[in-house]
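Reopening: Amino acid/amide ABC transporter ATP-binding protein 2, HAAT family still failing for me.
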Amino acid sequence: MSEPILQLDGVVTDIGRYHILKGVTLDVPRGQVTMLLGRNGVGKTTTLRTIMGLWRAKAGRILLEGQDMAPVPVSSRAALGIGFVPEDMGIFSDLTVEENMILATRSGPLDPARRDWLFAAFPPLRTFWRSEAGNLSGGQKQMLSIARAMAEERRLYLIDEPTKGLAPAIVSTMVGALRELKAQGASILMVEQNLSVARALGDRAAVMDDGAVVWAGAMAELSADPALQERLMGLSVEAH
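Support: Ran it again with your exact input. Result attached.
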């Protein structure tokens, strides 16, 4: 396994009186796609939100290339080079697609070559470039949400269930775009319930249960072992 770009060591997160993360330990290798898997409600989204500082860790350490994230304010974490695609997409509906993309860049105007690459990956962005984002379909909004995270090259991408509720044709477009990002050597931590997507993209897998990582290893190993899938998640990759 390559050197970790992100390390979580015993991360504990409480939300109100609820204990959500109960000691998450996880390494995300540089230049690979790590799939964060598990049943609903086990803490996957909370893990990503804790990395971004949207929920504060009560205990444990989060290290980005060895840098302790604890003292870094929420407003500065994206500036460290983290691209975040939240589950709720978080687009600005009253702004155009172009304006949403401009807001996602930190180093000046959107690079034309990068824009054209995103147009090729997500053709509807070109079609609706000057349209208000609120007028897009659900699948088009998800494309925009992912494209914003990809507006510039990032050190790390955190992506929360990008294919949830989408039609198969749109899922195929998403997978193609993320494959291209992976081919560029991107480091990605991705929550995904569609296990066929996880198998298509993932190099590594980490399975969560009850607020902790209970298994971590090669995605290929998990894909090849239906009994392990059933034990960890109650379902089979082959069935999805």
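The CA atoms of residues 41 and 200 lie 24 Å apart. If you still see a failure, please send the error message rather than a screenshot.
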